[in-house]
Write a structure and sequence with these properties.
The protein has 88 residues and is mostly helical. It is 72% helix and 0% strand. Helix 4 runs antiparallel to helix 5.
Length: 88
């Protein structure tokens, strides 16, 4: 298990998503939550999906040894509830 996976467990990722929602940044997170809920996904499940996208971005950051990529994160959010990055 790498450092990112050890540090960012599900509870931590969900807390980070809640912080993003409370801060309103990035706005794409709230829009994604609203989209998923409006399509019938329960709120808690939608938050878990968003946490998965955030985790995927954090793992990509680690792999690239680069900064948080807001564009890539937005693409991950747009793909929800599908998670194509999980196939990699």
């Amino acid at each position: 298990m790498n450092d990112t996976q050890e540090f960012f467990d599900e509870e931590t990722l969900l807390e980070m998503v809640e912080n993003q929602l409370n801060d309103g940044h990035p706005p794409h997170v709230k829009a994604t939550l609203m989209r998923l809920v409006m399509k019938g996904t329960p709120r808690e499940e939608a938050l878990q999906y968003i946490a998965c996208a955030l985790g995927a971005e954090l793992m990509a950051m680690e792999a690239d040894q680069g900064p948080f990529n807001l564009t890539r994160y937005g693409e991950f959010l747009d793909s929800l509830p599908e998670m194509p990055w999980a196939d990699d």
